[in-house]
Amino acid sequence: MSTELDSSKVLTLTPVPVVPVPTQTTAPTAPESAEPTPPPMPVTTGALDTRTLSRSLFLRLRALDAEGAAADSPERTYVRDTLIELNLPLVRYAAARFRSRNEPMEDIVQVGTIGLIKAIDRFDCERGVEFPTFAMPTVVGEIKRFFRDTSWSVRVPRRLQELRLALTKAGDELAQKLDRSPTVAELAAVLGVSEEDVVDGLAVGNAYTASSLDSPSPEDDGGEGSLADRLGYEDTALEGVEYRESLKPLLAKLPPRERQIIMLRFFANMTQSQIGEEVGISQMHVSRLLTRTLAQLRDGLISD
């Protein structure tokens, strides 16, 4: 040993991989193979924090866009779809706020997913904002727009929809403060609108929901049959009311004999022969007077 140390010869040492000594009791590891190491498996959502993985995917998406990758390229589509699936819990969380609405939760989630996709397409990871913070207003806004556009049974202007919500909130606050229902003037003063606008805003509440004619009658009305069974029959005589009211001033302008002939023919249901005997003229003369008078009345209705 001492002879080797004192020698001027240089020894060449072969490096040996250093194997760390475990400080805790662990299962023995298998010896490393001489074969090349396979590429790492794709990272799953369970391997990394969702936000960390989302940021990595957004960086990759930005790099693909910088490289000029097509929007429908396989890798870009895969990264974008993974981001959508990874952040779906955000949509479900936002949709849960609307569970009390009369809409299936699946439909609300689908609408929220549209907002999520819009947020993914607009997000810039270099601005220092977390994606959930950026995406939540877009997701919630898309869901609110869905309810605003589809929940009303009768389409009303957005201004009146927003006014109705403001009236509901102001009405509740004034009722607690005044210990009574507020008047139209009080609501108008609080919201800074006219009393006519308040009346319109309160009236549009009737357009929010609708009942089917086949739905059962309310219990306070007996609860028997449907709403359609309680509707009256169609009165065909009502169709002639407007025409009669329009004819009144025109009939008043007719000569007495022509007016009498019209009244006997259409209100007394007399034949032309009976009218001729009543008025004292021939049936042929009655026919000519009827034709001329009806044409005169028709022209009067058209001109009005």
Automatic annotation (TrEMBL):
A UniProt-annotated Pfam family: Sigma70_r3
Domain of life the protein comes from: Bacteria
UniProt GO molecular function: DNA binding; sigma factor activity
Region called Disordered, residue ranges: 1-41, 210-229
Gene3D superfamilies reported in the protein's UniProt record: 1.20.120.1810, Winged helix-like DNA-binding domain superfamily/Winged helix DNA-binding domain
InterPro entries: RNA_pol_sigma-70_dom (IPR014284), RNA_pol_sigma-B/F/G (IPR014322), RNA_pol_sigma70 (IPR000943), RNA_pol_sigma70_r2 (IPR007627), RNA_pol_sigma70_r3 (IPR007624), RNA_pol_sigma70_r4 (IPR007630), RNA_pol_sigma_r2 (IPR013325), RNA_pol_sigma_r3/r4-like (IPR013324)
Low complexity: bias regions: 10-35
Domain (RNA polymerase sigma-70): residue spans on this chain: 107-120
Entry keyword set: DNA-binding, Sigma factor, Transcription, Transcription regulation
GO biological process, one term: DNA-templated transcription initiation
PANTHER family: RNA POLYMERASE SIGMA-E FACTOR, SIGMA FACTOR F FLAGELLAR
Protein name: RNA polymerase sigma factor
